[in-house]
């Protein structure tokens, strides 16, 4: 929802007649809104009534069970060691969660005819893989580094060019992903100095409406359960839409970091915020230029945040033993910082080539069994040997 967008054929005014080519039958208007009628919204025009439903049934969730009595310690696990397979819906493995945030990894190994709809907003980081995300708003081709933002309730599908080597980090949110207000002026335009701008935003491209009858399956994730909905027409039957509520994407390689004379705190890496957590991009950057600066972060206790980092590329400057695809969790209330030798090694360094995604939640996260199964058991004691 960065700004107003429109595609396809829409009538001159909302809530007025929009006739099909026969001049008699109407396209069906659907207001797709948030916060009741008071938040951002879009108006979509369907060939069919969007409420047509043949059947629904509950299905088992291929989700990951909670790790009972998981220790409250510094946690590091290797997500590449978690067994994952299936289509983009089924290959999701929940790792960390609370009531308003669910962090999962996924590695789709097949494409599917099924569609997915989530009652949580979704952020999908494409670590590896190439393909297209299709929804009734249009198509967004994606490449490695893309970060797809999918509003809750959007019916969509991911199609991959290849069925091996794909890897996704997914973060579901109970509230919408917003672009921080500090990056936008009173008109909504990105301010000078923001790390991204309008030119970085990937918008849905026009997708020819599908006027097809048959049986189409939508997997709906809602209220902690999975529901299989069978509808009698193709879900992507929209001839036109306009508004502010739609999927979009921004690539992590387009995030322009803000640097300083001395160490800059994580809020300079902020990309998105929700009502209960923030999401940051760490990207290659020049280090601080004070002659005595220490580029590595200082030890810190963020007493109200659980801090999650997903390591994507490069050498992470403050951590030892981290691999591509690693996740660390530093729970609230536990001081953390660089491991032995890392602070000293950073002095005099000129730049870093790291890519990482950080999620700081304001409520504690619960761990799941996939974390236990891919755990680095030596991590909690990794600060002992100086
Ligand atoms: Fe931290």
Task: Tell me the layout of helices and strands.
Elements: E1 5-8, E2 28-33, E3 41-46, E4 55-59, E5 75-78, E6 92-97, E7 101-106, E8 115-118, E9 121-128, E10 131-135, E11 138-142, E12 146-150, E13 155-160, E14 167-173, E15 213-222, E16 225-233, E17 238-243, E18 248-251, E19 270-273, E20 277-282, E21 285-286, E22 306-313, E23 326-330, H1 342-346, E24 351-352, E25 355-361, E26 366-367, H2 369-373
Parallel strand pairs: 8-15
Antiparallel strand pairs: 1-17, 2-3, 3-17, 4-16, 5-23, 6-7, 6-26, 7-14, 8-13, 9-12, 9-14, 10-11, 10-13, 12-18, 15-16, 19-20, 20-25, 21-24, 22-23, 22-25
This protein binds fe (ii) ion.
Observed structural traits:
mainly beta, seven-stranded antiparallel sheet, 386 residues, binds fe (ii) ion
